[in-house]
Amino acid sequence: MKKTLKSLASLVIVLAFFSVCFYTASSKLDSLDNSPVNSYVKKKDGITVHFFDVGQGDCEFVEFPNGECMIIDASTDSYSETIISKVENLGYSKIDYAVATHPHDDHIGALDNVVEHFEIGEFYMPDVSTSSKCYNDLITVLNEKNIEVSTAESGVTILNGGDLLVEILSPADKTYSDSNDYSAVVKITYKDNSFIFMGDAQSTVENQLVDNYGDYIDADVLKVGHHGSSSSSSEEFLSAVTPKFAVISCGEDNPYDHPNEDAVNRLEKSGAEIYCTDECSSIAVNCDGSDNFDITFE
Hints:
- The protein contains nine helices and 15 strands.
- The radius of gyration is 25 Å and the shape is globular.
- The strands form two sheets. It has an eight-stranded mixed β-sheet with strand order 6-5-4-3-2-1-14-15, covered by helices on one side. A seven-stranded mixed β-sheet has the order 7-8-9-10-11-12-13.
- The chain is of the alpha/beta class.
- Helix 4 (111-117) packs parallel to helix 5 (133-144).
- The model is unreliable at 1-42 (pLDDT under 50).
């Protein structure tokens, strides 16, 4: 009888041990992160656009509501570490969509390092080249990573997913006299809200956009063309866009006097709230698709 009790006690101890082990293993499995490649814990609903403070250059990073992301330009080479760190701090290891608006150093200078550092999904760039080192460096790393380059031009749709649409409105020509006008102009629409990113496109392109698209270029947020130069933000263009918010990416005490006073006056006259990276540092604009905007400085 005593042997039976001892055996029963031993069996209970063994069962209890395996029960604890199973519970512990189950708890660990439940705690594993089953999120996709980008493990970013979403802070806000909707879409968030970060206008990084990258001196006299451009770099925008977009967090889409579907968990994907996009980078538009990447300033100069000296901001490589800054841009990579900012993207990583947001929780991303993959950039789903990358757009090089045009091959000028202040827009693609750090893009080779960004492409080398992150996994890249789709890459877009207009059909225009230069002999600059930063352009050649970018092409080299794209080739090394076997990343196909899609032509950024009017009529291209990058993403179309229900409430979310990302498309390229320009360039529409192949014979611009100013290389800035080859800039890929990107429009992002999320439900009832939209953003337009002008790269360095100037009045020539602005006039084309008005002629080709009319009220379709109406947008809530305008990334102002060419760092707010005098050749950007014409009255006719702003009348079609009617931006609520205008963001100008420029460096403090830059040698070009950007943003230009006349351009700023035209933006103010349009009714837009103006934010400049040289004064505000990095700027984040979040919206839920129904005219609820949250603007923060990072």
